[in-house]
């Protein structure tokens, strides 16, 4: 979560530092649908890839799963999560979702939000393969990621380049069909798709995701941190520029 220099930090950590807790493209609305579709019960062993600030982890833990493991690649995030969220059979560990070292065929539900988009396609496949490896047959894998719509290769490249410049992450969103193929190629069948607009930095979505008072606080933080403000405005401008071609979606897939 390195935000020592706001001009170079990854966009999601800039937003987190400003007080934003919901860092996924489809907002709280899509997350709630993801959790509902997973139908988590007290029998389930659940793994979350990239819990980040733990927003969805808290929703999942309300369902009292048999066990929960969150694997995130950011040391500071994992430390904060271990301090903030505690429970029986609840663990947050530092590591890569591409190699969790968890036992094969041992989990009932696996999910990850706003994390595959950050990776090149071969790395996306490695992470999907890992979800497949640790899931039991019939287990569910849910993703919540950034989608592209009505794009040709030129537009896609332009969006990826603009996003990389603005969020300082080599974001590689794909069309919904491409995301589906990626999952199907690794042995999943798609059970459900939910789409939403990509309104991460639109005022209405921020209020919906964060609540009125936290939104005021975020606004105040942005106003009083000029370097962060510059970054947030750049991100917002890129999101607005490509709004027509970007969306957010949840896919629920089953291990065949
Ligand atoms: C944009 S944030 C999303 C966080 C959270 N899932 C959310 O939606 O609010 C991206 C998160 O992915 C984590 N991450 C990125 N690549 C990862 C990987 N290969 N394995 C585990 N975590 C990863 C980052 O550390 C960060 O916490």
Detailed description of the structure:
The chain has 256 residues and is α/β, with parallel strands linked by helices. The chain contains ten helices and eight strands. It has a single domain (11-255), classed as Rossmann fold (3-Layer(aba) Sandwich), CATH 3.40.50. It has helices spanning 11-17, 27-38, 55-62, 75-84, 121-134, 153-167, 176-185, 203-210, 212-224, 226-241; strands at residues 45-49, 67-72, 90-94, 107-113, 135-148, 174-175, 188-197, 246-255. Strands 1, 2, 3, 4, 5, 6, 7 and 8 form an eight-stranded mixed β-sheet that branches. S-adenosylmethionine binds at residues 12, 23-24, 49-53, 55, 71-74, 77, 96-98, 113-115, 118.
Quick recap:
The chain is an alpha/beta fold.
Keywords:
single chain, 256 residues, alpha/beta, Rossmann fold, eight-stranded mixed β-sheet, 8 strands, globular, binds S-adenosylmethionine
SSE string? HHEHEHEEHEHEHEHHHE
Q: Tell me the strand percentage band.
A: 15-25%
Number of domains: 1
CATH architecture: 3-Layer(aba) Sandwich
Superfamily at the CATH H level?
Answer: Vaccinia Virus protein VP39
- Strands, total number: 8
Bound molecules: S-adenosylmethionine
The largest sheet is: 8 strands, mixed
Globally, the shape reads globular
> Would you tell me the overall average pLDDT?
95
Secondary-structure-based class equals alpha/beta
The rounded distance between the terminal residues' Cα atoms is 36 Å
Helix percentage = 40-55%
């Amino acid at each position: 979560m390195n935000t020592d220099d706001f001009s170079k930090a990854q966009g999601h950590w800039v937003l987190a530092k400003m007080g934003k807790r919901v860092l996924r493209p489809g907002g709280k609305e899509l997350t709630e649908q993801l959790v509902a579709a997973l139908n988590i019960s007290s029998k389930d062993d659940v793994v979350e890839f990239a819990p980040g600030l733990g927003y969805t982890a808290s929703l999942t833990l309300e369902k009292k799963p048999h066990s929960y493991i969150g694997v995130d690649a950011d040391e500071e995030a994992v430390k904060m999560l271990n301090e903030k969220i505690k429970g029986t059979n609840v663990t947050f560990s530092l590591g890569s979702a591409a190699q969790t070292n968890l036992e094969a065929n041992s989990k009932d539900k696996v999910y990850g939000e706003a994390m595959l988009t950050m990776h090149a396609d071969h790395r996306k496949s490695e992470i999907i393969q890992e979800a497949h490896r640790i899931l039991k047959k019939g287990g569910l894998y849910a993703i919540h990621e950034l989608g592209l719509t009505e794009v040709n290769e030129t537009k896609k490249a332009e969006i990826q380049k603009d996003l990389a410049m603005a969020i300082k992450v080599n974001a590689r969103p794909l069309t919904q069909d491409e995301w589906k193929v990626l999952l199907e190629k690794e042995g999943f069948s798609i059970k459900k798709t939910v789409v939403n607009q990509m309104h991460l930095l639109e005022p209405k979505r921020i209020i919906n995701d964060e609540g009125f008072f936290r939104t005021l606080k975020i606004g105040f933080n942005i106003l009083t941190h000029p370097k962060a403000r510059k970054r947030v405005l750049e991100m917002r401008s890129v999101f607005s520029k490509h709004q027509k071609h970007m969306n957010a979606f949840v896919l629920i897939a089953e291990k065949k």
